[in-house]
Specification:
By secondary structure, the chain is α/β, with parallel strands linked by helices. It is built from six helices and eight strands. The protein has one domain: 3-Layer(aba) Sandwich (Rossmann fold), CATH 3.40.50.
Length: about 230
């Protein structure tokens, strides 16, 4: 029996929204709330969720742009970037955190969920994963190239569960000084691990993008799996 995939509907204070759920073949296990890039819950993000389910995790991916357009899926072309940044610039982070909290609760209520839950986010999702961790919604968290974390270090003291942050050394959106600032903020917090990948650009994990870096993506995925296996 392979993984099972479905869309479910969740309740928010101001409406209903969808979430993509992937269940491992054993139909039980710890959970991951996977948090999207600015391109929506597109084919790439769904494939990432499916991979984590193949690794044995129950995964939920909330559609965070539903207030603008339900289930939006953008490509990694010029039009996709423009629309993605428009969505990002109008995104309500407080409501987004409420949506993530609803997704966490829904995953914990599903039959077969056992153990703990982590947030794993990419780009915008990396920043949202950081806030999800700081808000105490999960037991651990992973932030792939979280843009904006360097500007949210006032929340550093709120990071009280195991956290893994992954950055590319050639990331033009998160340059080395920003990563250095983040590293300095957490140098005395043993719960936080930071990994840097040489020659890796922003979005290095996404094989749909020109910036895909197979070596960095494979190593980061491996380190993430080791981290999750130890912390969940």
């Amino acid at each position: 029996m392979g993984i099972s995939k479905e869309w479910i509907q969740l309740d928010a204070a101001d409406g209903k929204f969808d979430a993509y759920v992937v269940t491992p073949h054993l139909r039980r296990g710890p959970g991951i709330v996977l948090i999207q890039e600015i391109f929506g819950v597109n084919e790439h993000i769904r494939s990432v969720a499916e991979q984590y389910a193949l690794d044995g995790y129950m995964v939920i991916v909330p559609d965070l742009f539903w207030r603008a357009q339900p289930r939006i899926e953008l490509d990694y072309d010029q039009a996709g970037w423009k629309r993605g940044f428009d969505l990002y610039n109008n995104f309500d982070f407080a409501k987004g955190q409420s949506d993530i909290a609803a997704a966490v609760a829904a995953l914990k209520a599903r039959p077969g969920y056992e153990g703990k839950i982590a947030s794993v986010g990419f780009c915008l999702g990396g920043l949202l994963s950081y806030h999800t961790i700081a808000n105490g919604l999960v037991d651990a968290g992973v932030c792939y190239y979280g843009g904006g974390i360097a500007n949210a270090l006032d929340r550093a003291a709120d990071i009280k569960v195991p956290t893994l942050m992954l950055f590319g050394e050639a990331d033009e959106h998160i340059p080395p000084p920003a990563v250095e600032k983040i590293t300095a903020a957490f140098q005395d917090n043993p719960l936080v691990q930071i990994r840097n990948y040489p020659d890796a650009q922003h979005g290095f994990n996404c094989s749909y993008r020109d910036s895909y870096n197979m070596r960095a993506a494979v190593k980061a995925h491996g380190e993430t799996l080791v981290f999750l296996s130890e912390k969940l």
